[in-house]
């Protein structure tokens, strides 16, 4: 490349980079907003389960895990009897850990909780801070709407132990982080991480009051 072409090529690369950033910015903002909406929806279900029972009854739709209406009815009954719980405190570090898994797993169409490097949810949380107490993770695929994501996880059709629902309504969890993004197979994925407490890595801030629970 001649000296004259070098600066020209550099400017073209810069211009194309700016165009790419402008094109992707709305998607990044949407993903961030959706993640915040998911946590807000979870907190609505935790703090007002009887109200959320009505939401599930009216909006659950058809389930796809094999149980159908029976799973929806069972979820509504659970919510009607559930006692309100405190809202989960959002954690920046835990959300970053969830996002790292979305960015790793989404483009390859992966499933499950174990990363390509063998990492598990608490390993990814540890990259951006320190988990305190118990921890867990929910993942949903193929849905772009916060309420639909949370309803599916609460109904938990096809999951025998209702593990996703247990995470949402666990009194052991006081802090959470979420991330959403593209998934090669299902179009979208949402990762939600839960913990008893969390110390943010950058400034050592405690995201939620620590509780004396055992580590998973």
UniProtKB/TrEMBL annotation:
The keyword Signal applies. CDD domains: CAP_bacterial. Coiled coil: none annotated. It holds the Pfam family CAP. Residues 42-191 form the SCP domain. Keywords: Signal. InterPro entries: CAP_dom, CAP_sf. Residues 1-31 form the signal peptide. It comes from the Bacteria. This is SCP-like extracellular.
